[in-house]
Amino acid sequence: MVAASRSALARPYRGVFPVVPTIFHDDGSLDLEGQKRAIDFMIDAGSNGLCILANYSEQFVLSDAEREILTDLALKHVAGRVPVIVTTTHYSTAICVERCRMAEALGAAMVMIMPPYHGATIRVGEAGVYEFFKTVSDAINIPIMIQDAPVSGTPLSGEFLARMAQEIKNVSYFKIETAGAAAKLRALIAASGTGVEGPWDGEEGITLMADLDAGATGSMTGGGYPDGFRQILDPWFAGDRAKARAAYAHWLPLINWENRQCGLAAAKILMQEGGIIGSDRLRLPQRPVDVEARKGLLELARERDVLALRWGR
Amino acid sequence: MVAASRSALARPYRGVFPVVPTIFHDDGSLDLEGQKRAIDFMIDAGSNGLCILANYSEQFVLSDAEREILTDLALKHVAGRVPVIVTTTHYSTAICVERCRMAEALGAAMVMIMPPYHGATIRVGEAGVYEFFKTVSDAINIPIMIQDAPVSGTPLSGEFLARMAQEIKNVSYFKIETAGAAAKLRALIAASGTGVEGPWDGEEGITLMADLDAGATGSMTGGGYPDGFRQILDPWFAGDRAKARAAYAHWLPLINWENRQCGLAAAKILMQEGGIIGSDRLRLPQRPVDVEARKGLLELARERDVLALRWGR
Fold first, then answer.
1. For residue A24, what are the β-bridge partners?
2. Which residues span the domain enclosing B86?
3. Cross-chain CB nearest to B93 (options A63, A153, A284)
4. Is some CB atom of chain B closer than 8 A to the CB atom of A152?
5. Is A283 within the bounds of a domain?
6. What phi and psi, each to the nearest 5 degrees, are found at residue B14?
7. Which residue on chain B is closest to A155 by alpha carbon?
8. How far is Cα A23 from Cα A230, in angstroms, rounded to an integer?
9. How far apart are CA B154 and CA B163, in angstroms?
10. Is the CB of B60 less than 8 angstroms away from the CB of A128?
């Protein structure tokens, strides 16, 4: 287990906030017991916080009712051990507001939201994005993390994000995982004054070192090896950049394999192989990861002695 | 009122099957009484059938619970007067299956489904699309219309569609509204033998004449002026191509205005202006149509004496 070095619940939140995968049985139904074990492992592995219902949680294969079940389960089961971010993205402003209010009522520390998008073509433009986040912010009292990711197909400049940080009360965290994340983090931090409480990165931490150098204070990674990210972030927060860089170089082959070969299956593969969960199944139409990609992931994970392969044994 | 020239419930379904807009009050909540009046108008205006929960129904701003309410309401209120197609698109195979089963149980004539997609980037490839439709088909006993639209960001060749028509039992209708629809309809019809029960077009009927010449037997248009489309389709089905072409030329300025200036708001504007519904509001983050675009639509609609502007008075 990795000890927390400061109160995990103190703001500003910082550190590694991995995405909790949604755990299914082999038949594709929710595995709620496995879900709890995945959460317990992730906390024991040193997560400074958790994020549920993100894209790496396969949020796009869940019904509204399942989202509610999972939100309720995660917040009750975590029970304040670490802060929990709940993803509440929906194209409809009103439905997003409703999801945010429910998350707040159940004890979420923060909500994470992408700008409204649907499919390949339906977008709302900058004025619509601004109005969307303003309306959501006015409805709640916890911070909003804007997720800037390619899947939304919505360009968000550093300057526009900074303006929302300054003008919209609860917009204060940013997960930047578009191309050029480090440069955008710099632009955002430079333009926003005190509005940005948390300039973070995401995308499995694949650009973490550049992003830390740019001013990132948190990273939303995959859920398989928070212990690895703590080995990078603990020295970084202690001011030891050289040690952080060496640790990043050590973990990078595994991070890269997750980012490019296994994607959202990586965390589940590690947890299943380690006996934490019974099935690493993705819900259809997502197909299982290629056998060789799975082997490569486990090889890299064993070399690094990840906790996921030991915790459940 | 436009009289039906043959039993509307006989297969193969053909003619104009417009999309029913989802009707909201000014506060964004569902207007179920307005919804029923919109449906009654659309049937009286000559719709050969209806489609609910499509993109022009703003399906992307609805919760799962609202979809159920609207499906139940539409099928009960239509009560067999015309066949109803229910859109059941979801990225999750299992959730799409569940929606299809519910639609069938409630009396849907057909389900319309896009290949699985999420956002700008998440796609499953041809093998995944095939497996998705095969799984859905195996779970139901009514025809499936595959919707081939740009919003899904998933290229579907005419040959691939034809293969699914031949090999997957219930895949038998196709709504082609991607660029080059006429050519794709020809390729689909040529390659599919008897598998294609309904090669249709969509996209507000903007390419209807070219698509009819290519073999289309149905069109899924906007909901504002089914009476106009009947003026094109009735002579077409009676074998009078010249009269159909003249009618298409007459209606094209309005179709074009809907397609390029007003989009999914057009049907609601006409129904609201005609007193059929109380509010033409789109649900946020969709913004109201520009005032000049609204004026231009009404000018073209009045010139053509559309029923929507008279039916509710």
1. A30
2. 15-229
3. A284
4. yes
5. no
6. -155, 165
7. B120
8. 24
9. 16
10. no
In a domain, B307, yes or no: no
DSSP state of B13: P
CATH of the domain at B97: 3.20.20.70
- Which residues 60-79 of chain A have a CB within 8 Å of chain B? 60-65
A153 interfaces chain B, CB cutoff of 8 Å? yes
CA distance A206 to A209: 8
> Which residues of chain B have a CB within 8 Å of the CB of A152?
119-120
**d(C-alpha A66, C-alpha A57), whole Å:** 12
Structure tokens at B210: 């070219």
Please count the structural domains in chain B.
1
Q: Check if the beta carbon of residue A30 is closer than 8 Å to that of residue A209.
A: no
> B287 to chain A: which residues are within 8 Å by CB?
124, 128
Choosing from A76, A134, A169, A175, which is the catalytic residue?
A: A175
Is B30's Cβ below 8 Å from some Cβ in A? no
- Minimal Cβ distance to B285: which of A63, A64, A128: A128
One digit per residue, pLDDT tens: chain A, 313 residues? 454 445 667 899 999 999 999 999 999 999 999 999 999 999 999 999 999 999 999 999 999 999 999 999 999 999 999 999 999 999 999 999 999 999 999 999 999 999 999 999 999 999 999 999 999 999 999 999 999 999 999 999 999 999 999 999 999 999 999 999 999 999 999 988 778 999 999 999 999 999 999 999 999 999 999 999 999 999 999 999 999 999 999 999 999 999 999 999 999 999 999 999 999 999 999 999 999 999 999 999 999 999 999 998 8
Q: What is the pTM of this model?
A: 0.94
Contact A63 B64 (CB under 8 A): yes
Instruction: Report whether B54 contacts B32 (CB < 8 A).
Output: no
Weakly modelled stretches of chain B, pLDDT under 50: 1, 3-5
Question: Is B218 inside a domain boundary?
Answer: yes
Q: Mean pLDDT in chain B?
A: 96
| Residue of B25, B26, B29, B61 best to disrupt the A interface, most CBs of A under 10 A | B61
Residue B86 lies in a domain: yes
Write the ipTM. 0.92
A283 vs A22: CA distance, rounded Å? 9
Q: Does B93 touch chain A (CB under 8 A)?
A: yes
